Amino acid sequence: MIYFDNAATTYPKPACVIRSADRALYDYGANPGRSGHALSQRTSEQVFIARQRCAEFFGAKTENTVFTLNCTHSLNFAIKGVCAMYGKPHIITTDLEHNAVIRPIYELAKEGKASYSIADSGSCDDDLIRSVKHLIRSDTRIMVATAGCNVDGRLTPIAAIGKLCAQNNICFIADCAQAAGVIPLSLSDGINIICAPGHKGLYGPMGTGLLLTDGKYPLKSIIQGGTGSMSESAEQPDFLPDMLESGTINTPGAIALGAGVSFVKARGIRRINEHETAVCDIVLKGLAKNPGIKVYRRDGLRYLPVVSFNVYGMLSSDAARILSDNGFYLRAGLHCNFLAHRKLGTIGKKGADLNGSVRLAPSVFNTEHDAARFVSFVNKKFC
Amino acid sequence: MKSFIILRSSTMAWNAVNALKKAKITAGYDKISSPHGCRFGVWVNGDPEHICRILQLSGIECLDIKREGELT
Fold it and tell me: Which residue among A45, A61, A239 sits closest to B14, beta carbon to beta carbon?
């Protein structure tokens, strides 16, 4: 089996992450931040250590680092939470966004709580920046952009968008679902709120995510409940992380995510990126001469280590099924991102045209040999 | 005499433990139930006012100080 579906979730997980989750279940089984007994305190300390690791990794303060369930959860907290601080703000997003971004924004607009515009990413970074600039209005308060598109891996000019937002007092929320752990990302890059999953490039377990804020733009909580603090009051705490961490957190998940972040830090993001890029380069080079394959890459753009492709005359799901039957695990379909597929021309209006693409995404555990075996199979089977 | 420095949250209490460790001051994380509700904080042995000033330098705000025995 060769697993190339790491953009959906990384697998396998590093041994340190597995050990950490295991140890959390055995040794840190009490509820952190609720009880005062010794086991609760020890558990709470481990959660704090994990929080500290995540905070340092993204240049955030520990108290501004929130454990969530996944990146979608973080994005909903960020988008709806900041939106609630303003009276019907204008939101700008891009045509590369995952449904985790566009659906909350669309919902806010439908409820009359916000209006929004979608920037055209065009064919280069400058096109996107120009489009964002053009869309800024006096009531624009929020910008949400992916750091790297989950469909084809296209990178966006995060620092330039951040600068533009800072100049216009716009809260910049970055969807770092695909980029976290693969490219360096920090709140010092002009991002006000980073939303990241724990289970992808940070090698944590599924059911973990992060929201990290520089604290410049306050936000409201979209859910309320027990936090272990201010328990005498009906008011939700107005301070982080408690404000956004109602209910018991995924403690083994958070502790294991801390181990995942340490793993990435120890390997080095640059090394990880170089390795995964080398794996992708073998695939790109190997598929380039195959007339039966269409790869979605364009010159002049920067990409995450992801290869999105289709087999001519075949539904992406059929191609992925054949690959799966032969031991290659890749994701097919729309990847929860109809906007990016519209841009790539891989989505139609009728059911049969809703093809999407097949996506290959390596992790640090894939080898160049995996890539060579994949190329060899594809070029024999689909030519 | 031991004092309990009340802090805003569990995270801030752990931040305080770490900040005081750097200043070579031992502090114990705890959650106590006071007549006003549950509070997170740290137990310390030295002058709590002085310790709060050290915490302030790390951006940690002390909400209250309770001497041992004042909590009930």
Answer: A45
